[in-house]
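May I ask for whichever protein you like with its backbone structure tokens?
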Amino acid sequence: MAKIYYDSDCDLTLLEGKVIGIIGYGSQGHAHAQNLRDSGCQVVVGLAGGSQSREKAQSDGFRVLTVAEMAKESDIIMMLAPDMLHKQIYYESVEKNLVPGNILMFAHGFTIHYGQVIPPTDVDVTMIAPKTTGHPLRRMYTEGKGAPAIVAVYQDVSGKANGLALAYGKGIGCARAGIIETTFAEETETDLFGEQTVLCGGITSLIKAGFETLVEAGYQPEIAYFECLNELKMIVDMIYEGGLNYMRYSISHTAEYGDYTRGPRVIDDMVKDEMVQIRLRFKMALSLKSGFWKIRLVAPFIMLSNDKTRNTSLKP
């Protein structure tokens, strides 16, 4: 069984007297910084000189420093810039300013797990990864709620790394919902698998295939849109609310029949076998770090240049 921590398990006083430096002020960065500040923590923001987020962070009342200045001043450094920039930011601005006893934190395990950053042996290295994007994280915090998160410890020099990471998680509101214990390896590999095969790659391909099948058969695109995409939100909302059985209880008998009989024909053993191969590639990437990192960098640009992917009529 997974170990889950809640507010009562997390001691926010562990952060007292510590300066928390947030690198980046985008979707996650602004939410972490504001939630921590509202929880009574001392926060500074580190941004590159020409960052477009500088004015926003300053207008929100934060002291904005260069990343190097922030790293020198902070006890806890949270890396919330885009993954592909971590290596450059770390080696140019963070590494030389770390001192024994610092805590280096991440919201995703990719950089550490695939060796893009090799931290010194005299600092704690931990992760708090909210399972939502920044804007809902901030909104839920202001409503007295919180988003679930996961916690992992890669390096525990102080002997308090887990407690300090949980305190951070409480500071951003995640302990209200629950913080699940994991490892950097598990978080990275499952996150990549989930987003690329199910949440983004799998669902989008399934929607497009269904839509194109109906349109190519002569049905109106508008009707195909509603049947293959618009109603998806209703189904996902029911699954989110009560699980698969609750969804099946709520839909028509014909829809439920299709779930049991048509679903396995579309998502068959060949699909699962392909998922296994993709999962193994994420595992193998541990020994193919540089190549996998290049793939991660160029993939967005490959997708943007693919006219077939960009110019779809499947939209509201």
